[in-house]
């Protein structure tokens, strides 16, 4: 970019009267207005400064030769190589979050590589690098609270920064130098022999040194530093994974997601009149069906046949028959919903999340298993969005994957009921007057007693029991 300067007499006049530059293009300072230029007797006139060989004024058409002004050329600005990464956009219900960095200053990053994440009270949003380069500076510290659009990190743009550098070729070995200089083979041998040493006149007497008794000495005691206590191993977020017995304490900031979980669970206890009813389910029929059709089911639909599809389908069938369990209290009104969106509790390293499977009443077993697989994969990768967890009219929590015998789940607000599944264990049960060993599961239904009476709750849970113990009745919509 070229820029021509005006004669030395004009800048003083313009600077004293006020100079305003409207725009700067690649090769031209477009319009410069001078309010008063008394030296040239110009008032409220304009002139055009171009990279040509003259300086012309629009009012007087006066021309100045090129030797009266100078020119210079600027190089590419350094800021063109710096890319500033901002906070990713949030959902409408999220206003801020805590940032956590996975990289440090000086690390090379590739395009679209994850360099950190913003943890909100509902999910985590990945921060990716828009270019390949090297991290120059973090504008916010790890753990700081950020808002949407805030500048986070500076990255210097380079070519191929994320690629690994080739290993340097080993340097050739240097020849080892001899300790003694080599003999010059061109030097002639000496012609005269060296002189003979004189012969001693008497025998040589060797005087032995007097013996000095050894003094018993003790080596100085070495300074042994005090053993430092072993630091307990930590996992993601600095959370200890096991106790080492060193009698130390460690304080870790509670994540936003954990804070939100604690707040919602406590609100559920304070608002709802929660009551839990129990029952047990004979899993023989559904296990027999799964064993018989699991290979053909996976071959046709591409997903495995599990137990969750039977429970979700049975829950959707029961919710259709008893819409009060699918309803919710809103102030002084009861909201009855004619759709069934079931939230499925999933345990992740960051906390409990409840992604939603929508319109379960219109799904078959394959659709349910496919939807659960997609949600489970997102939860394990930490890519669940706000939309994946928003809403829900009923929740199913499967504590049986951890070996739970039975428990009382807590309602997921703003819902009115939650079904708790537990482990499958062989137990003796009475079947047609005989004692048999059957695979049994305890189930629990926690409900809001303000809205759902005991009769509806028990009837609802018995319908789920009937649907799981006889899955063909659900398939036949009986």
TrEMBL record:
Assigned keywords, A-Z: Acyltransferase, Lipoyl, Mitochondrion, Transferase, Transit peptide, Tricarboxylic acid cycle
First-level EC class = transferase
For this protein, the record's PROSITE patterns field holds: BIOTINYL_LIPOYL (PS50968), LIPOYL (PS00189)
Major localization listed first in the record, in broad terms: mitochondrion
Q: What pathway is this protein said to act in by its record?
A: Amino-acid degradation; L-lysine degradation via saccharopine pathway; glutaryl-CoA from L-lysine: step 6/6
* Pfam families from the UniProt entry: 2-oxoacid_dh, Biotin_lipoyl
Region (Disordered): which ranges? 160-252
Q: What is this protein called?
A: Dihydrolipoyllysine-residue succinyltransferase component of 2-oxoglutarate dehydrogenase complex, mitochondrial
GO cellular component, as recorded? mitochondrion; oxoglutarate dehydrogenase complex
Protein's organism: Holothuria leucospilota
Role description: Dihydrolipoamide succinyltransferase (E2) component of the 2-oxoglutarate dehydrogenase complex. The 2-oxoglutarate dehydrogenase complex catalyzes the overall conversion of 2-oxoglutarate to succinyl-CoA and CO(2). The 2-oxoglutarate dehydrogenase complex is mainly active in the mitochondrion. A fraction of the 2-oxoglutarate dehydrogenase complex also localizes in the nucleus and is required for lysine succinylation of histones: associates with KAT2A on chromatin and provides succinyl-CoA to histone succinyltransferase KAT2A.
What is the annotated localization of this protein?
Mitochondrion
Ranges of Low complexity compositional bias? 202-225
Q: Where is the Lipoyl-binding domain?
A: 82-156
Similarity remark: Belongs to the 2-oxoacid dehydrogenase family.
- What is one process in the GO biological process aspect for this record? tricarboxylic acid cycle
In alphabetical order, the GO MF annotations are: dihydrolipoyllysine-residue succinyltransferase activity
